[in-house]
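Hey, can you fold this one?
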Amino acid sequence: MLDHKMVRVCDKLIDVFMVDKPTPTDWRRLLAFSREWNNIRPHFFRRCQERADAEGNPDMKPKLLRLGRKLKEVDEDVQRHNELLEAIKSSPLEIGELVSRRRKDFTKEFFVHLHAVAESYYDNPIEQNAMAKLGNACLAAVQDCDNASESMEALHAAELKFQDIINSPTLDAACKKIDSLAEKNQLDSTLVLMITKAWSAAKDSNMMKEEVKDILYHLYVTARGNLQRLVPKEIRIIKYLLTIEDTEQQLASLRDAFTPGDELEGKDVDCLYTTPEKLRGWITTVVDAYNLSREGTLIKEAKDLMNPKIIQRMEELKKVVEKNFM
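Sure. Predicted structure:
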């Protein structure tokens, strides 16, 4: 039997969970905030069962049983989150290793719980700040882990594609496979880098036949050409304009870019045309993507522009376009 004080505490909590805060989201937050729940837990679930057994109202009995069952599920989740949090707090310098071992435990729900725990220290700013820093460190470690995993997956996928290309019966068939990958938007920079490295190693080797070097060179040219065509022409124009230091020369190049004519895409030089509106739109998109990069938003074709100094120059370029051409 529970003592009278614990009965009152449990009955009050049952009312809170069923009436005032009736959703599992509320329950998670309340458990995260509670400093006494560990002591109350075993008595609470027993009290839910006792009240259900003694309940004469046929509508209330299943509600009490459901509360006990569902809250137990939430409580088990919260206990797992707290156990992980304690592991992190005990070894703050080994967060990266912990994340790599237990990546599946670092769920969205865990970070919501960690945030709630940090909020619960509203009366202790030092502890609250420490929890917030711990959360940021965990998030950074998770992002690093996911990026490394994606890189490994991309490398494995690229290796399979590369082997398939190399095993083609003829050079023409191999080049067609590269063209086909480009058409399906499956020709990524990892594969192109792999082909480039193979060609680079071959051309400097005295052990490789000239025929093999020639094949790898053609694969390299085909891959680079396709990858270049996948990049929006406005991005290519922007990249070219950013190489020009002289203001007058940059202005002249902008006039050329906004003067319609025959477009030419070559290995060493491009003659591409667009409108001021489109160019400004792409500059805005890249700058916005850079500003949102902390949330994981990046433009694949413009990753090499994601640099504070380059972004500043792009904003200056945008002003030049607006002032002189719009």
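Residues 168 and 307 are 40 Å apart (CA to CA). Let me know if you want another pass with a different chain boundary.
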